[in-house]
Amino acid sequence: MFLLFGFRPVVKKIGVTKKYRCTRCSNVSCWEVYESRNWFTLFFIPLIPMKPEYFERCSVCGGYNQLSREEAERCRTIV
């Protein structure tokens, strides 16, 4: 019997934060908030979601900071 399983990351944008100065590129821009979640897959079909991680990303250089769930929920908008 042949089983094909693995993990697949799914990232979705959930909102935008205020304008910040990025410590990496020194530009002032709106940071976007994302939710990243790994899914256990069987034959490329996502079956079981794992614990989500939240982060905000600089829209200029792509630098990011981890966020707690509460911080990310405050930034949630309809996208």
User: Got a strand count?
Assistant: 5
- Extract low-pLDDT stretches: none
**Major β-sheet annotation:** 5 strands, antiparallel
Arithmetic mean pLDDT: 87
Instruction: Give the amount of beta strand, in percent.
Output: over 45%
Number of helices: 1
End-to-end gap: 43 Å
- Number of domains as seen in the coordinates: 1
Query: Helix and strand succession?
Result: EEEEEH
Coarse morphology: elongated
Structural class: mainly beta
What's the Cα radius of gyration?
A: 16 Å
Helix content: under 10%
Task: Describe this structure in a few short sentences.
The model has no long low-confidence stretch (mean pLDDT 87).
Explain what this protein looks like in three dimensions.
The protein is mainly beta. It has one domain. Helix content is 8%, strand content 59%. It is built from 1 helix and 5 strands; from the N terminus they run βββββα. It has one helix at residues 69-74; strands at residues 5-21, 28-42, 45-49, 53-58, 64-67. Strands 1, 2, 3, 4 and 5 form a 5-stranded antiparallel sheet that branches.
Question: How are the secondary structure elements laid out?
Answer:
Blueprint: E1 5-21, E2 28-42, E3 45-49, E4 53-58, E5 64-67, H1 69-74
Antiparallel strand pairs: 1-2, 2-3, 2-4, 4-5
Question: Characteristics of this structure?
Answer:
79 residues; mainly beta; five-stranded antiparallel beta sheet; 1 helix; elongated
